[in-house]
Amino acid sequence: MLLNKAIITVCLSGLLFGCQASTSQNTSKVAPPPVEIVTGDAHLEQRLDVQSFIKMMVTKHGFNEKYLQDIFTKTRSQPKIIAAISRPAEKSKTWGEYRPIFMTQKRIADGVLFYKNNEADLKRAEQQYGVNAETIVAIIGVETSYGANKGNWRVIDALSTLAFNYPKRADFFVKELEHFLIIVRENSADPFSYTGSYAGAMGLPQFMPSSYRNFAVDFNGDHKRDLWNNKSDAIGSVANYLAKNGWSRGGSIALQVKASPNASIAKVTHDGSIKAPYNSVAELIKAGVVTTANPNGKALLLKFENTSGLEYWFGFQNFYSITRYNRSPLYALAVYQLGQAIKQAL
């Protein structure tokens, strides 16, 4: 993947292809909000792969077989989800095309309002996890416009559709479906009450089920981890996610630098999947980068294609941390710039 282009994930959730799932703490009872449901008509319960999945859940996790049979009898496969997640090249955008999607006056103004309305929780999260408040706000703003667009697909439909009808990512979505059903059981909840994106991402921060189990926190002390209705829990959960994925307290995220597109710069420009910074700033300066950054630090030199030409940026450790939420460098840069714009507008 060239760094002046990147794939916009089919749902905005950075957690769609995020960290590996693992067993976590008990999940408290959460009632997701009532929303309009998108429905379909393709039944799944008679399929052999679904029956195999049910048997696995019974054997591995002790589920009641009839309970799961009843769930999949009512679950609907959604062809529109397959069509959406399979869309080809139009998903690829340059930075010049990507940035205006998120850097709007409305999103900045709404971010300022979200910040002011939740300042106590943001400051507490900042103190507890070391993640700056504006980055937390920006992630929620990019993911769901501060909760305005959390998705109206039944999560059980979305995950089942992708687990059993999207072979390209079947292994991933089967695991997410497994985690989701465990969440439902731990919450003693109605599996059809949970709603989210068409990839199964949930709540204000669009956590996939595995990330919910691993990183969602009860930040307001009500013994629930409610990412749909409770902004405090959403704020704490985003901060916890970043803190557990390499965030450096007090560290920088990104810095625009000057560079010429010559052979020396091309040699030190990072290309491919984002990694933790591995070049010293001193090495990058020696290659021709002009910057005020501390030469003793480490950074990735990244190249982005804007409408007026190329931009070069340093991505620091916290840039890398944001790309654990969503693997796209465009996403991380949008989060950084939106956060800065919100901070400046306060």
Itemize the secondary structure elements and their pairings:
Blueprint: E1 5-7, E2 42-43, H1 48-61, H2 65-74, E3 76-77, H3 79-85, E4 92-94, H4 95-102, H5 105-117, H6 119-129, H7 133-144, E5 153-154, H8 155-165, H9 170-187, E6 195-196, H10 209-215, H11 231-243, E7 254-257, H12 263-268, E8 279-280, H13 281-286, E9 298-306, E10 309-315, H14 317-325, H15 329-345
Antiparallel strand pairs: 1-4, 2-3, 5-6, 7-10, 8-9, 9-10
Could you characterize what this model shows?
- It is built from 15 helices and 10 strands.
- It has helices spanning 48-61, 65-74, 79-85, 95-102, 105-117, 119-129, 133-144, 155-165, 170-187, 209-215, 231-243, 263-268, 281-286, 317-325, 329-345, and strands at residues 5-7, 42-43, 76-77, 92-94, 153-154, 195-196, 254-257, 279-280, 298-306, 309-315.
- Helices cover 47% and strands 10% of the residues.
- With 346 residues, it is of the alpha+beta class.
- The longest helix is centred in the middle third of the chain and has 18 residues, at 170-187.
- Among the domains are: 5-10 and 248-324, Orthogonal Bundle (Lysozyme); 42-89 and 150-243, Bacterial muramidase (Helicase, Ruva Protein, domain 3, Orthogonal Bundle).
- The chain has a 4-stranded antiparallel beta sheet. A two-stranded antiparallel sheet has the order 1-4. Strands 2-3 form a two-stranded antiparallel sheet.
- α10 (209-215) packs across α11.
